[in-house]
Amino acid sequence: MSRIAPTLGRRSTAEDALAGASLRGRRILVTGANSGLGVETTRVLAQGGADVILACRDVRAGERVAQGLREGLRAGAGRLELLALDLADLRSVAAAARTLRDDGRGLDVLINNAGVMATPRGSTAQGHELQLGTNHLGHFALTLALAPLLHARAGARVVTLSSSLHRQGRGERMMATLRDDPGYARRKYRPFAAYGDAKLANLLFARALARRWPDVASFAVHPGVIPTPLSRSMGTGGVLFRLVGRPFMKSVAQGAATTVFAATHPALAGHSGAYLADCGLDTPSAQAQDDALAQALWQASEDAIAAADVALAQAG
């Protein structure tokens, strides 16, 4: 771990990471902003003066969260707005991006925060394995579709949440899921293995984006282990996970710290492509540093989106 902001560390909160900086005039989009880390991330960024877009699958739930946040924000906080976004459906991703492009405003920061964890075997609307399809492919498609808005703002950043469990990911298995067997029809499905693959994909995407878009800083973030609804799909195991592991977990405020750090801190200038944890620079797995694998993932992801576009066009 390398400390580039000496006052920040494992127990820092999102407010500590912002350190009183003014975000007035900045526009930030947070996916999955109506739950878990997304709520605290949104609150702190808005309190800093940023206008924050809450991109949510459940817009009613998002509006309830936004209203609660508005009531608690101090004078001078940024505005909150809602955007319908279902990352498990590329049609929804395209529609959300189109809405943002059509409103004529730029975007300073995109925070790819939403995700699912260790779900039973399932598929997205386009037939991709649910975890890789939601956590990676949906965010990949959203980021590329918002390229004009990000390139229009000097100092724009893309923050993609990954996990230390990316170390359980395997590039060969990840690529097979994306290219050859998206529904696990020919392989045994293991929820945490698939989650590791999706988190590896998040990290590889962030690394590749830094090289492809030199004018936009890109970071991958491990928020830590936090008792949020992310583990809800684990059933009884998720309950035990939260209860037994709680003494070793971060609070939600601490879990959101590295995301806010990645989105705003000036100390990260010149570190695009980095993997961050505990508000510092961390070293990812060897596979996560494999640029050839990152390129293959990028191409396969583009191919998957193109195939979905063709299928939707043919369906009328």
Low-confidence stretches: 236-245
Approximate shape: globular
Q: State the distance separating the first and last CA atoms.
A: 51 Å
Give the beta-strand count.
Answer: 8
Structure report:
With 316 residues, the protein is of the alpha/beta class. Helices cover 45% and strands 12% of the residues. The chain is built from 12 helices and 8 strands. It has helices at 14-18, 37-47, 59-72, 90-102, 130-145, 147-151, 171-179, 191-212, 236-245, 252-255, 257-264, 291-314; strands at 27-31, 51-56, 80-84, 109-112, 157-161, 217-222, 275-277, 280-282. It has an 8-stranded mixed β-sheet, sandwiched between helices. A hairpin with a 2-residue loop joins strand 7 (275-277) and strand 8. Helix 7 runs parallel beside helix 12 (291-314).
Structure at a glance:
The chain has 12 helices and 8 strands.
List the defining traits of the structure above.
about 325 residues; alpha/beta; 8-stranded mixed beta sheet; 8 strands
What secondary-structure arrangement, pairings included, does this model have?
Elements (H helix, E strand, L loop, with lengths): L13 H5 L8 E5 L5 H11 L3 E6 L2 H14 L7 E5 L5 H13 L6 E4 L17 H16 L1 H5 L5 E5 L9 H9 L11 H22 L4 E6 L13 H10 L6 H4 L1 H8 L10 E3 L2 E3 L8 H24 L2
Parallel strand pairs: 1-2, 1-4, 2-3, 4-5, 5-6, 6-7
Antiparallel strand pairs: 7-8
Helix pairs in contact: 4-5, 5-8, 7-12, 8-12
